[in-house]
Each structure stands twice: as C-alpha cells, then as structure tokens.
Amino acid sequence: MSEHYTLHVNGVDREVRDAWVGENLLYVLRERLGLMAAKGACEQGECGSCSVLVDGHLVCSCLVLAASATGQPIVTVEGLAPPGAPSDVQQAFVDAGAVQCGFCTPGLIIAAHDLLDRTPEPSEMEIREELSGNVCRCTGYGRIIEAVQRVAVARRSGLAAEVDS
After folding, report:
1. Residues 6+ positions from 91 with CB-CB distance below 8 Å
2. Nearest-5° angle of CA 73, CA 32, CA 20?
3. pLDDT tens digits, 45-62
4. DSSP symbols for the chain
C-alpha cells in the first residue's frame, strides 16, 4: 500500500509519493528526495552517519519513520548554508583537516552545529561527549575537535566567517 505525504526539508515542502509507510527517514531523504549527504552505515543508530535535525533535535534518520516527521522541520547538511557556500562548521572542518574519507562528515557536521547552537562555548570534554555518537574510522577525532573549537572561538569573537584564523 503506497502513501503520499509532505516533508518540510531544509525549508522547502517536499512531496513523497508512492512510499511505503514503514520507510525510514534516511531512505526517503536519499532515495526519494535525492539528498545524499546523510549516509547509511549501521542502520541501527549506532554510528551517527545518518544524523539530521528533526524539529530541532539531533536524530539518527535510520531510526525515524519518515511519515512520522510530517509537519516538523527537517534539516540535513544540504540545508545548513546556501548552495555553494559552506557553513562556518563545514569550513572549519576543511580548514582543520577534519575531513578524511568523508563518510562520517555530514553526521559530524550536523552534530557539531547542534552542539554549538545549544552550547556556544563547549569544553573539549563536552565536544567529545556530544560527538561520541558519531563514529569516524579515519581521523582519530583530534582535528574534528579542533574544528568545533575554531567555530566556537570565531562565533564568540563575532568572526563566524573567518574560522580559519
């Protein structure tokens, strides 16, 4: 039995047609809406590669039924900044060398945005704790933590566009 519903993704209403009601949000974002940033790795909510914001809350999209997210704003990495312009967190990840293979990067960036929006001056321990749900097999996390710290300092200084200081 196919369903039709609308999701509000990155500020735009998007029609989902001929969907199975049991499809998870990750599948719908990638396969039905063409938003490829969120990645499917573990499909069990353990790795964080599929992290998105739903109604302002960080979630693993592989664990959320897409149809249950109707009427709630959904933000993916594609919606963090205007097309062609990286967000301050995205730029800091590049500047700090925190991007390796890139598989975990979208989930980490969403998690970092969520952390910095809630806690503008996180300690290193808070950064480690908040990002602990995101598994990276390439970087060792040092450069990821550095990137988050750069953004916190830049935002505090009012230099969000100049995070590579």
Report:
1. 163, 164
2. 90
3. 999 999 999 999 999 999
4. -EEEEEEEETTEEEEEEEEETT-BHHHIIIIIT---SS--SSSSSSS-TTEEEETTEEEEGGGSBGGGGTTSEEE-GGGSS-TTS--HHHHHHHHTT--SSSSSHHHHHHHHHHHHHH-SS--HHHHHHHTTTS--SSS-SHHHHHHHHHHHHHHHHT-TT-TT-
CA torsion 89-94-99-105 (nearest 10°) is 30
Rounded Cα distance, 116 and 104, in Å: 18
**pTM > 0.85:** yes
Instruction: State both tokens at 17.
Output: 């047609």
Which residue(s) pair with 13 in the sheet?
Answer: 8
